[in-house]
Write a structure and sequence with these properties.
Pfam families: AsnC_trans_reg, HTH_24. Keywords: DNA-binding, Transcription, Transcription regulation. This protein is an alpha+beta fold. The protein folds into two domains: 50 residues, Arc Repressor Mutant, subunit A; 77 residues, Alpha-Beta Plaits. The protein has six helices and four strands.
Amino acid sequence: MPSTETVDAIDARLLLALADDPRATTVALAERTGIARNTAQTRLTRLERTGALDTFERRVSPEALGYPLTAFITAQVTQRRLDETASALAAVPEVLEVHGISGTVDLLIHVAAKDADDLYRIAGLILAVPGIERSSTALAMRRLVPYRVAPLLRRAAD
C-alpha cells in the first residue's frame, strides 16, 4: 500500500515523462523534466520505495494472457473473518484486486476469466472462501475509461 507521502510537482513531471516513455533511461527522464540525473534517480527510487510508483505488473493485460472477460464480484463477509477471507482471495490467481468498500456489501472483487464457464467456476471458488456469506457477479461489457492517473499527475505537475 502506498505511503501517505505525497507526490510534488517535480515527482509528477517525472512520472508523466515515465508514463509517456516507460523505457526511458534516467538520463532521458532527467532531461525531459529539467532536473539532474542524480535527482531523477533519487526521486524514482523514493517513489518506488513509498509505493507511489506501482509495479510493472499493473501494465500486463489479462486479455493477452487468455483472460478476455472482466467481472466484478461483490461479497458480504463475516466481519471477524475479513483478514482470513482476504488471504484466501489472494490465493485465487484470477482475482486481480480486492477492495473493502462501504455500503450493503463489504468487498469488490475484480476478476479475469477465460469465458463464461470459467467465470462461473471462479465465482464458485469465491463463494466457497471462508467468511464469504453471499456474492453477486457483474460482467463488464466494455471498458469505457481505462485505468489512468495522468490527469491527476498533470494537475499535480502544475
